[in-house]
Design goal:
Blueprint: E1 2-6, E2 13-16, H1 23-30, E3 38-40, E4 62-66, E5 72-78, E6 81-87, H2 93-101, H3 110-114, E7 116-120, H4 133-136, E8 142-149
Parallel strand pairs: 1-4, 5-8
Antiparallel strand pairs: 1-2, 3-4, 5-6, 7-8
Amino acid sequence: MEIYVHAHDRELRLIEVDEASTVRELAAAHGPVDEGSVWVEDGDEPLATDLTLGEAEIGERGHIHISRCPRVEVRVRYGGDDKSKDFPPGATIARVFAWATGRRGFDLTPSEKAKHTLGICDELTEPDKAEHVGSLAGEDCSLCLDLAPKERFEG
């Protein structure tokens, strides 16, 4: 089976794995081996390292994240205000955007949501919606994003 592996270096890898291999073996080959270091994309809990990849139900061409961070503190800035929330490292930017623009975030209207995107703080970089927060997090397991108008990132 093939799976996509995300890690803190932002390099996405498509690898061939045996479904009988364990999560621990995968982690040892591609990152840290600590319990709690392997996450299914947008999963809320880490995978147990003694599970086989078949038992983990990752699925063909599924995405996993190998992280040194058990959680990533994501801070989103918008209109002079900040809101923070902890996310699992395998959470996608799309998931963060949904929170940031939703009721528990900045509560944007559907029209306002359509005109905004997330960018990395103090950069003119817009991460892909499928990118994982753990791939973008700093050494301190935190990430700062700006909720900004899309026009800021358009050519």
